[in-house]
Amino acid sequence: MASVLAAKLGLNSLMRKPAKNFSVRICTMESDMEFSCEVKWKGKDLFDFVCRTLGLRETWFFGLRYNIKDTVAWLKMEKRVLDQEVPKEEPITLHFLAKFYPENAEEELVQDITQHLFFLQVKKKILEEEIHCPPEASVLLASYAVHAKYGDYDPSVHKPGFLAEEELLPKRVINLYQMTAEMWEERITACYAEHRGRTRDEAEMEYLKIAQDLDMYGVNYFLIRNKKGTDLLLGVDALGLHIYEPDNRLTPKCSFPWNEIRNISYSDKEFTIKPLDKKTSVFKFNSSRLRVNKLILQLCIGNHDLFMRRRRVDSLEVQQMKAQAREERARKQVERQRLQREKQLREEAERARDELQRRLIQLQDEAHMANEALLRSEQTADLLAEKAQIAEEEAKLLAQKAAEAETEMQRIKVTAIRGQEERRLMEQKMLEAEMLALKMAEESQRRAKEAEQLKQDLQEARESERRAKHKLLEITSKAVYTSPGMPSDSMPPDLSFSRENLSFDFKDTDMKRLSMEIEKEKVEYMEKSKHLQEQLNELKTEIESLKLKERETPLDIIHNQNTEQGTSKHSNFKKLTLQSTKSRVAFFEEL
């Protein structure tokens, strides 16, 4: 009985036991995420779940990569996650990365999130020197990376030193020149200031458009050997297969576009590629181990499928995504123009406000000066009045003395009869008194004229005072005057902004006009892109004199030689593919 009960309890516990899950950590270029997954999940189940979480629809570019021993592998979609050679310790770490690269980023990348993930991954590869980038292109790419992070350049915000903590240039480029961090920042900021008016998304796309022309962009390299046992490098990218010498990853010795390849297969470590031309013999090479062959085959199949897909009509899903992207770009364009107009009006209002404030300060200064002039006029008038009063008193005193002198003269005349001598003395005294009286009379007249002149000066001072008061009243009335041509929101502190004229309707005519504007911008950009090489050459010329030749790496030397010969990534690919497939196969086997 006890054993039956125990068996029942054991059965119930098994029925209640939940299905075992396992945890996964997904590392993207921006953040890490952890999920709990069911044991039965296949690689596609996990991959689709991550894409839905990120809001990503252009899934065909991406994959989940994990590290295995001394190489990497990509999670297979059709097999269960736990049945693959993923790390056994939990959480299982997988990296969500771009597995395949577009031929033309601007035409193929539709979603903003897709573009952003590519931008972050390519930037990381350039900074870590997995993609060789010449110094002048590094500076230009750094300026677009700064614009993508900070938006439009504003000298009042982006002051010297704001890039001090940013990692913007490969260390190889920094060590190649005798330039300080401040000198590099100055060069980058000068380019950054020229990008004003672009959005952050546009800056990221400009970054990718420049980066996709770099020789090592989007290429996966593998060490191989041909039939003669020569060590070579196999490069797999969006255009086809390329064969490199081990010490030169920039310039392939021969190339095979995907449209010339009929079949790819491997057996153990031997890899076989069959050209489309059946008259041409197959060419084979050996890799280091079987796991590398599996990885090469995955990348070949995926890149070949995308190569052929690009040359067919887009699927309904892609057409829908592109239509939505065009509508979104048109909407953003309208919104950007609206914001630009609002910003322009706000700046004009702020300028008008600043002008009124400046004018107000000027009027206040003029009023202050007028007050001071009025005060000085009043002081001058008081002084003149005081001087006039003193002159009047002196004139009265002189008149009194003249009267006394006249009295004395009369008294002398009365006593003149007292004797001849006395008369003579009296006459002499009388003559002196007359002379004194004459002199006093002249002095009295002079003082009277001076008093009259002081009265006139007083009247002029009072007239000046009256004019100063009148000017002060005029200045005071101007200070409270508001020009009818100025917007009312320019007067602080009651700022109000009318938005009645900033409403928009999405009509067909607007969409046509926007389409024309977008097309016009495209034409303008095409013209501007012609000067990109000139801009790179100019940057190169500016810093060339500071280069330390002895620090150049082998790839730098090869890049300089290619530049001098006028060889680019695309021109070299075109030149190699002009040769017959047969001759290229023979060349590969003879290397």
From TrEMBL:
**SUPFAM superfamilies referenced in this protein's UniProt entry, alphabetically:** Moesin tail domain, PH domain-like, Second domain of FERM, Ubiquitin-like
Statement: the UniProt record of this protein carries the keyword Hydrolase: no
Q: What membrane topology term does the record carry?
A: Peripheral membrane protein
InterPro entries, from UniProt?
Band_41_domain (IPR019749), ERM (IPR011174), ERM_C_dom (IPR011259), ERM_FERM_C (IPR041789), ERM_helical (IPR046810), Ez/rad/moesin-like (IPR000798), FERM/acyl-CoA-bd_prot_sf (IPR014352), FERM_2 (IPR035963)
Q: Looking at the keywords, is Aminoacyl-tRNA synthetase present?
A: no
Per the record, GO CC terms? cell projection; plasma membrane
Protein localization: Cell membrane; Cell projection
Instruction: Tell me, in one coarse class, where this protein mainly resides.
Output: membrane
- PROSITE patterns listed in its UniProt record: FERM_1 (PS00660), FERM_2 (PS00661), FERM_3 (PS50057)
TM ranges are none
- Coiled-coil zones: 313-415, 441-471, 515-552
The UniProt record lists the FERM domain at 22-311
**The entry's keywords:** Cell membrane, Cell projection, Coiled coil, Membrane
- In this chain, a 1,2-diacyl-sn-glycero-3-phospho-(1D-myo-inositol) is annotated as bound at 76-79, 294
Protein name in UniProt: FERM domain-containing protein
Upper lineage? Eukaryota, Metazoa, Chordata, Craniata, Vertebrata
